[in-house]
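User: For a teaching handout, I'd like to show students what a predicted protein-ligand complex looks like in token form. I'll give you the sequence and the SMILES for S-adenosylmethionine. Please answer with just the structure.
Assistant: Understood, here is the input followed by the structure.
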Amino acid sequence: MTRPLAIDLFCGLGGWTEGLLSEGWRVRGYDIEAHEYGDERYPAELVLADVMSLHGADLAEAELIVASPPCTEFSYMAMPWGRAKQIARALRGEDEFPEGYNGSRTVAELTALFNACFRLQREANEAAGRDIPMIVENVRGAVPWVGKAAWNHGSFYLWGDVPALMPEVVGARKLPGCGHGWKHPDDPRHTPGLDFTRLAGKAADGIKQAGLTGLRDNGKGSRWFQDGAAPSGSKSSARKAASAKIAKIPLALSSHIARVYHPGAIEVAA
Ligand SMILES: C[S@@+](CC[C@H](N)C(=O)[O-])C[C@H]1O[C@@H](n2cnc3c(N)ncnc32)[C@H](O)[C@@H]1O
């Protein structure tokens, strides 16, 4: 039997894709750049493209769409810093943008990539003549800008066709800095220099607080985000690699979604 096709938009290192592959899916990922760090790279077919430039008809043969648009601006604005709050006020038309800011200037611009996912789903449904389920993932800091999430798996917030039954969360924590490869507020304290140890235990929207004492995956605590070096050279590529790993969807989440939406699962249940 041919494996069903899933589309992974903004696929990064392929957290969604790993779960899908492990549950018998074929996956096509779209990203604006290929993330390759040593042995780590996207594990399925990768299409290099700006998601904004796609038409949903390109996705019409899929049985499932998953998407993780960049979260950096949402995460930044959720930080308890004057500059972050000023940017949020400016986007609402209540203040000026701070000097040197080069991020989104309108809410439409801020939410463009997130909203593109839903446009693509509508177009794909129309082209396919059936409903293709879609899950869009982002951070809690996105909620004020895009609306209430249907569910959160730790700090991985989900919109779209989220199944009624979801797995329990054990330490699923995502930290800001996941939006590599796209513009962000030009702030010296932005992603490359963030010091999350100072935020531990504080109520910062956009970061799941439970157990926030360091970073996962790289085993180096928060040093990736503390050195404040200029975003160039090997340190910056190490930081980018760390960001890409932190942004990865946890396998518990991606494999659950993969199982629920596998067409074989639907046939068995019917
Ligand atoms: C939050 S990360 C995705 C993480 C991914 N879901 C994972 O599990 O590894 C966002 C990704 O969006 C990509 N990206 C940013 N802007 C894009 C665009 N306009 N079109 C396509 N990909 C884009 C970035 O290169 C980055 O890999």
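For the handout, you might add this sentence: The chain has one domain: 5-269.
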